[in-house]
Amino acid sequence: MFSGFMINAWTIATVVAIVAGVVGFFVVLRGSAFPAHAIPKGAFAGAAAANLLGINALVGLGVFAVLAALGIGTLGRRGRQDAVTALALVMMLAIGAVLLSRSSQYEPQIYALLFGEVLGVSTTELLPVALLGMVCIAAVMLLYRPLLLSSIVPEIAEARGIRARRVEMAFLLVVAVATAVTVPVVGALLIFSLMIGPPAAARSFTDRPSLALVLSVVFALVTVWAAIAISYLSNWPIGFFVGAIGAISYGIGRVWSGLRGAREAQSGRRAGLAA
Amino acid sequence: MQQLLTSIFEPGFFSSEPVHVALVIGGAAAIVSAIVGVFTVMRGQSFAGHALSDVSTAGGSGAFLIGLSPLVGFVGLGVVGATTMDAIGVRRVRGRDLATGIVLGGSIGLAALFLYLGTTSGATTGATQQILFGSIFSIDSSTIPLVIVFSAVAIAIIAALYRPLLLSSVSNDVAAARGVPLRLVGLLFMAALAVAVGLSSLTIGAILSTALLVGPAAIALRLTARPGIALLVAGVIGVGVTWAGVLLAYDSYYWGTSRQGYPVSFFIVTLVFLLYLASGLRERKG
After folding, report:
1. What is the pTM of this model?
2. What is the spatial distance between Cα B111 and Cα A188, in angstroms, rounded to a whole number?
3. What are phi and psi of B230, to 5 degrees?
4. Do A236 and B105 count as a contact with CB atoms less than 8 A apart?
5. Closest listed residue to residue B57, CA positions, set B187, B267, B203, B190
6. Size of interface A-B (CB pairs under 8 A)
7. Fewer CB atoms inside 10 Å of the end CB: C or N, chain B?
8. Are B194 and B201 in contact (CB under 8 A)?
9. Which residue has the higher pLDDT, B137 or B192?
10. ipTM
């Protein structure tokens, strides 16, 4: 399980999990689940285009992801953002459908783009992914305070001169870069599971943002590592385990926060009685 | 005149059986999607509407695996997914999007598994692509009656709920003050949404399902503020773009020399997208 080509899989999965944990934390905090689903899924068309033109898939993914982010960001200013996101997504998928109909794409390749191919990562792919991943983390760290403020208390952020729209746009671009990093590894559909499940679970365990961010990365790492290990042993697709572990950890988080809420309510009542 | 007509409707358009089926099923799906879509857009549940198409796709691939009718899988898992979304995240809008995301993530995992098992256990060339994109031209005409029945169910739910649904879509607080049972209305609406989306993803594919659900409704709601008129406008736009898209896709076979048509979803989605942009221009002036 830890020999030869598997080393690459473990390394790249770790990079992906860290990026997904950090970016996903803000996705959950800002309630941007839909753009976080739409950008990678739409960028899938970019990989198809790259394949058709014979260029690096990373370039196609990156270009389409940035286009999707810009489209959602600009069109979403007027009109309803969720409707705009849906329309931008279907437009890119339709372009993808045309490109796929033009190429004699081999079926398993499409499956791999959608659901990931972590075991087939080569050493030459590691460096660009690691670099882009670092860019992503650096951008989030740079934006940390304005992002946090405008996500939790938009009014205070506005009063301090933080432009909500610029922050939103910058954040969508970060999601786009994260997409380019992660899609070739875990697939256009599963990166979404990884950006939502672990951070959502992390938030149910603590209210402190910095601690939740760390927890989110830890959960994402555990999810990916466990998914690779189980997938290696069972020969079932890794995507299934990422999705399942994500949903289960969220479920545990919900039960935990439910219990905590009940306990606090009870101790509150006791305090009330004592007083 | 004759020449103009034949250049618009390439030979064989009106006598082609797949075209007839595409026009009927596409039209029916467009009307149901437009009606449910107006409420979906008003309630800000486009994400749920899109997610349900992926959820029902997972159901479809699961049904395919165990040999059930795909319709059962599509609508069945769609309704289960919608109920779960409603059950785990109703309190706030953000919580709702998160709940949608969790259900979506879980079902994508299931879809990965089902497709993997399906492709290793038997020959299913093109299954992934078929499930992802669907094809309006490859519908079996025997599914028409079932599609009509399920469409009627979805429309009946909306019609029965019309007033309370509208009220709660415009303002939750007003609806609550008037004694509208919000949980029940929300749950029933999600069920109608699941049926409509499941049907349309089965017949016309996941892309068009979302495009026809959100597109015409979003355009109509930009053009008019009156819900009744918005329903009508959305329906007309939905059917119009679908039929125009089918025609263009059919004609595209005769474009150029390659004798290779373009996918119908591309035309329909492009028309929807352009109309949405155009409606924005009008809104700005008005």
Report:
1. 0.85
2. 13
3. -60, -40
4. no
5. B203
6. 183
7. N
8. no
9. B192
10. 0.85
